[in-house]
């Protein structure tokens, strides 16, 4: 029953994810300047809020109480959101197959999102394990790796839109990927737990803006159906979340976690070569805000 519940949760979450990001793209277009990464900052804030499950465990609140309480809160928020005024209309050009491969123009963005999610997933799945097993961190200190990563992600995503408006998406993502690779290098080179935590924080600085920018550009590459564009790129991206734990785990069994985590560095480095796919024919979202 728990497995079935997780399947339903995954289906619902994916539909909600695409709907939110597709609508965010339309809001961004109407707003007249980049604001997409700011929306994603609240995803990280929600992730930190969700980590409150540890507090539930520490205070011995049973799952039979915690899960229904969390579900009730989410249901209340969903009902409130359903009554909120959204932009009217839907994707144009609907029709055709229910499932379709990304169009040629979206494939590089899908690969870029895949790489970005691999980098994020590496920290989500392995930061605490790496700090505990490789650097000898205590459980409390090992948990700070993800906390530091999420904190820098939130900070960058709240500021990234303003930076992108000035520098352009291509230059921003190239610099971001370089910073992320540097953060991974610190993690892998330094044998001390504190250095590892700082390294994961630097990784967060780098990867924070990559996925939101890829999704934002995808919605403008296919303006008649931004929802489909976001869905296609998101599917490629979440494949990275699915592949990354298996890849690192399989490599760790053979060469150790230290070298296995290097696979995330290689994938993140590839973003440098994919960044030109973010270039648009005309400068986007730099005009004055519509009245």
Q: Total helix count?
A: 12
Biggest β-sheet strands, sense, barrel: none
Helix content: over 70%
- Unreliably modeled segments: 286-291
What does the overall shape look like? globular
- The residue-averaged pLDDT reads 85
Q: How far from one another are the termini?
A: 52 Å
**Topology pattern, helix = H, strand = E:** HHHHHHHHHHHH
In terms of structural class, how would the helical and strand content be classed? mainly alpha
- Multimerization state: single chain
Radius of gyration, in angstroms, nearest whole number: 20 Å
Count of beta strands: 0
Strand content: under 5%
What does this structure look like?
This protein is mostly helical and 291 residues long. 76% of the residues lie in helices and 0% in strands. The radius of gyration is 20 Å and the shape is globular. The longest helix has 30 residues, at 2-31. The protein is built from twelve helices and no strands. α2 runs antiparallel to α6, α5 (107-133) runs antiparallel to α9 and α7 packs antiparallel against α12.
Name some characteristics of this structure.
disordered C terminus, globular
Fold topology:
Elements: H1 2-31, H2 36-50, H3 53-58, H4 63-82, H5 107-133, H6 139-167, H7 169-189, H8 193-207, H9 210-221, H10 226-255, H11 257-260, H12 262-274
Helix pairs in contact: 1-9, 1-10, 2-6, 5-6, 5-8, 5-9, 5-10, 5-12, 6-7, 6-8, 7-8, 7-12, 9-10
